[in-house]
Amino acid sequence: MTRRLESSPRTIAELVVQLGRITHGHGYTEGLTPAQWSALRYLSRANRFSRTVSAFAEFHATTRGTASQTVKGLVARGYLNRTRAPRDGRSTRLEVTDNARAILARDPCEALVRAASALPSSARDRLATGLERLLGHLVQGCHKRQFGVCTSCAHLEVAGWRREGEPRFKCAFFGELLEETELAQICINFQPGKDSAMKRAFRGQA
Ligand code: SF4
Question: Which of 167, 173, 120 is nearest to 148 (CA)?
Fold first, then answer.
């Protein structure tokens, strides 16, 4: 059987690079750089364990020094605040400000989000699964971390049940309970799990 030309591995790689290039080119708006947009985007979606300069450096595949400069510019412009992390008073956590949330409504990446919204949901699901696997292979090959969310993480555990029969979740890695809103936030300690506690709980097997 001959492989369709448009789905050859090289064509997929070129399409991904082109998408990145176009999105990067749109990133010089509102007086920010593409790296600063990336930092705001990441920090607005990262969980409390991952809102640090070093976590952003890993996410953005850059050095800690470069990430630090990016963050410094955003703090100076009032888009980020530095706070002390409650778990470890020596480290600093970054929080996006209301001004940052306002500017994120005009994120140049929204053009890509709109393009993705135009796809049928089944195509989006297949694309998301394929891109996730692609990213997994890539980060494994260069010993980088794969960021992800609690709902598909191997460290997610059921901590108990609420009165309404809804499960409560905790993170076995950090040993802390997780709020429902945190389950979909990006985490630096994500560990891909074949069958997460979330799926098991909703099948009544946890
Ligand atoms: S369950 Fe996984 S993704 Fe969620 S906080 Fe813990 S390590 Fe991070």
Answer: 173
CB of 131 closer than 8 Å to CB of 146: no
Question: Each residue of 71-129: pLDDT tens digit?
Answer: 999 999 999 999 987 766 677 899 999 999 999 999 999 999 999 999 999 999 999 98
Cβ(169) to ligand 1 under 6 A?
Answer: no
The contacts of residue 91 (CB under 8 Å, 6+ apart) are 52, 84, 85
For residue 142, how far is its CA from the centre of ligand 1 (angstroms)?
22
pTM above 0.70, yes or no: yes
Task: Find out if CATH 1.10.10.10 is the number for domain 5-113.
Answer: yes
SS3 106: coil
Burial class from Cβ neighbours inside 10 Å (0-12, 13-18, 19+) for residue 114 reads exposed
- Cβ of residue 152 lying under 6 Å from some atom of ligand 1: no
Ligand 1 nearest-atom number relative to CA 169 = 1
- Does the beta carbon of 173 lie inside 6 Å of ligand 1? yes
The domain spans of the chain are: 5-113, 144-202
Asked whether 190 lines ligand 1 (CB < 6 A), one says yes
